[in-house]
Specification:
The structure holds two protein chains of two kinds. Chain A is an alpha+beta fold. Chain A is built from 16 helices and ten strands. In chain A, strand 6 and strand 7 form a beta hairpin. Chain B is of the alpha/beta class. Chain B has a single domain, classed as Rossmann fold, CATH 3.40.50. Chain B has seven helices and ten strands. In chain B, the strands form two sheets. In chain B, strands 6-7-8-3-9-10 form a six-stranded mixed β-sheet. In chain B, a hairpin with a 3-residue loop joins strand 1 and strand 2. In chain B, helix 3 packs across helix 4, helix 3 runs parallel beside helix 5 and helix 4 crosses helix 5. Chain B is globular, with a radius of gyration of 17 Å. The model of chain B has no long low-confidence stretch (mean pLDDT 92). The chains are: A alpha+beta, B alpha/beta. The interface between A and B is medium-sized, with 28 and 31 residues. The complex binds adenosine-5'-diphosphate (ADP) and magnesium ion. Adenosine-5'-diphosphate binds next to helix 1 of chain B.
């Protein structure tokens, strides 16, 4: 009953000044629209860029780095002095993960691990007429790569699974293929680091979107790659692990490092710079949205002040006939909040519509083969933050004017007449 | 003996702007149920100031004020608002109607605020009050569509909506012509005679005052005859 009365009076005052109210509400609407659109677009972009990295990057990578031997012989003799002699060089077979098959079996049993994909890399030359191009052939388990790292998304032409079924087949980097002018189904020649020549059949192109990678990287099955470099089936250079929870990666990398006695790198330390980029984009979106809201807030503040100035008489008579200061305060707070609520709600709606529009703008770039339109994130979180912000801003904008209204002394107003 | 509605006990008030000027000096008097009292005196002698104190809107005074036997000193702003809502009706020189609401709604507002009756009942009662004042035909109009005399009658209806113990008026006919003043006076007269309504009306119209039950005459912030 009481609340309804306050709302009724607030409504009457609002409608009496509906033009100004509308302008204030449009201000709020505009800022929320911008806020939703910006955040949706920016986080869409973030997700896409993160996706480019995260989809393709193992959460933990086990490998054996080439580095100086930690146990230099002279240190065994005396560890106290400074030694100028660093005699023992990195060993020949140091890039191989020791005991890989056993590690893979053990990882596959680990409950925190989503999947394991072993890899063998081999340096080769692609022979193009008389010229040799440097290349790297990655021997992969196609099914595991597809399941864990969306390998097929980066094979725009040809079939990724043919790597497994067609003997001696290769998926060639798109840029390399263009240089070599080979079509799918044709053969290419490669020279291995051991000096031997092999003929491989092209079954598809690989396109990551990064030219420097596409010029060099190609993919074969693990067995084919091992054959190219004359190594046994246990020869594995990388074990790529995908976890259920990406946040566990740093801890697990440490654990695997000590348990399996290999080098282990987690995705967070490998890609620290991407986090920073994402954060900066989010901060910019929030800053723009909040700035616009503050501007809208001042608009509401002005309207309320004007309304109070115009409605002094009404406020005085309400107080004279039994409305308390709190009642008057609530009337003006209701006005402020309803401007925020209406403006905010329409802002969400328009924000959604503009996001939909942006989502449909074609965005075709050879660098990003899987992206057809601008990426937009529709996370309800941003809509929730948007409406909360608009209510908080309008509440704050209404705070001082409504307090002022509640303090109006009816005697002064009535005496003035 | 009839019930004591209002009692002023040595009420004094000064303004401090910039020097202290005493406006009301030790006023003591009381008003009983059903009385029609007028307050007269020269312009500037403190009549309005007194009425604002008696109506609880002005709390900055010395002395004590009893309404319905209860002291108004040391009551909170909220409690005083409640007293005004429930026990006091006001009519000012200016009508103070809200143009955003219809005539009927203007009369209803203090009634809905009090919440003693349902909205429907409040509406019926507001209509009755408008009938007493002979303006029920204007009920659905906006206040700005009415004449000055009609507006003042709506303001009186609004003052009556919660059946107040006392209706106070500060020069309620001050803005009206002779004919409309007469109408308003007749209404007051009828309210006391037919409804035993207690009335306290400030006026500088001696003719008006002469026809009330009792005249409180003021001069320089003092009562010279009651
Ligand atoms: N806020 C104020 N500050 C100083 N003096 C005031 C103030 N309000 C009224 N007065 C003075 O108080 C006196 C009484 O005023 P008022 O009660 O309005 O007189 P009346 O209603 O009898 O004409 C006047 O002399 C007026 O100038
Ligand atoms: Mg006066």
């Amino acid at each position: 009953m009481k609340g309804a009365l306050i709302i009724n009076i607030a409504k009457a005052l609002l409608l009496a000044r509906w033009r100004q109210t509308l302008v204030a509400a449009i201000g709020v609407m505009f800022s929320i629209t911008m806020f939703i659109t910006l955040l949706g677009f920016m986080t869409g972009l973030n997700d896409m860029l993160d996706g480019l990295i995260v989809n393709r990057t193992p959460h933990v990578r086990l490998f054996r780095d080439v580095k100086a031997n930690e146990q230099q012989a002279i240190r065994l003799f005396s560890n106290d002095e400074y030694h100028f002699i660093q005699s023992i060089r990195p060993g020949m077979s140091s890039q191989v993960v020791d005991n890989a098959p056993a590690i893979i079996r053990s990882l596959e049993k680990d409950k925190r691990v989503l999947g394991v994909s072993p890899k063998v890399t081999a340096q080769v030359f692609y022979n193009v007429g008389t010229i040799d191009l440097t290349g790297v052939i990655n021997g992969i388990n196609v099914e595991a790569e597809e399941k864990l790292f969306h390998f097929d998304e980066y094979v725009p032409m040809g079939r990724a699974l043919d790597l497994k079924t067609v003997p001696n087949s290769i998926i060639l980097g798109k840029a390399a293929a263009e240089k070599m002018q080979v079509e799918i189904g044709e053969n290419i020649q490669v020279t291995t680091s051991l000096g031997e020549r092999y003929t491989l059949k092209v079954v598809g192109y690989f396109q990551s979107g990064i030219q420097d990678i596409d010029k060099v990287q190609s993919y074969c099955s693990i067995a084919t790659t091992q054959k190219l470099i004359g190594k046994p089936a246990s020869y594995i250079t990388d074990i790529n692990v995908k976890l259920y929870d990406i946040l566990l990666a740093p801890a697990l990398a440490k654990e695997y490092h000590s348990v399996y006695e290999t080098d282990a790198e987690d995705i967070q330390s490998a890609n620290a710079q991407f986090e920073t980029g994402s954060d900066v984009r989010s901060i910019i979106s929030y800053a723009v949205g909040i700035t616009l809201l503050i501007v809208a807030g001042f608009g509401i503040y002005n309207i309320l002040n004007m309304m109070i100035y115009e409605k002094m008489d009404s406020i005085a008579i309400l107080k004279a006939t039994g409305f308390s200061g709190t009642d008057v305060k609530n009337i003006f707070r209701t006005i402020a909040l309803s401007i925020g609520l209406f403006g905010g709600s329409f802002g969400l709606l328009f924000g959604f519509l503009v996001s939909k529009f942006v989502d449909n703008i074609p965005f075709i770039t050879p660098a990003l083969p899987t992206i057809k339109t601008f990426p937009v994130n529709y996370n309800p979180k941003y809509y929730f933050i948007g409406i909360t912000f608009s209510l908080i801003t309008t509440y704050l904008a209404g705070l001082f004017p409504s307090r002022k209204a509640s303090k109006i002394d009816p005697v002064i107003i009535i005496r003035g007449k | 003996m009839s019930k004591r509605i209002l009692e002023a006990q040595s009420i004094s008030k000064s303004f401090h702007d910039p020097v202290t000027i005493p406006i009301l000096k030790n006023l003591t008097f009381s008003i009983d149920q059903g009385e029609f009292v007028s307050v007269t005196g020269k312009s500037g002698c403190g009549k309005s100031t007194l009425l604002y104190i008696l109506s609880t809107m002005d709390t900055d005074y010395e002395g004590d004020l009893f309404i319905d036997g209860v002291s108004m000193k040391n009551k909170s702003e909220k409690e005083l608002a409640r007293v005004r809502n429930e026990k006091i009706g006001f009519v000012f020189q200016f009508h103070y109607l809200l143009n955003e609401f219809s005539v009927l709604e203007n009369v209803m507002l203090p009634g809905i605020k009090l919440g003693r009756y349902s909205r429907m009942e409040t509406e019926d009662r507001a209509m009755q009050k408008l009938k007493i004042l002979g303006i029920h035909e204007q009920a659905l109009k906006r206040p700005n569509q009415l004449s000055g005399g009609q507006k003042q009658r709506v303001a009186i209806a609004r003052a009556l909506i919660n059946d107040p113990l006392i209706v106070m008026g500060d020069e309620p006919t001050g803005n009206l012509d002779k004919k409309n003043s007469e109408v308003v006076f007749d209404i007051f007269k009828e309210l006391t005679e037919s409804f035993n309504q207690t009335l306290l009306v400030v006026t500088h119209d001696n003719e008006f005052a002469a026809r009330t039950h009792r005249i409180i005459e003021m001069e320089d912030g003092q009562i010279i005859s009651a």
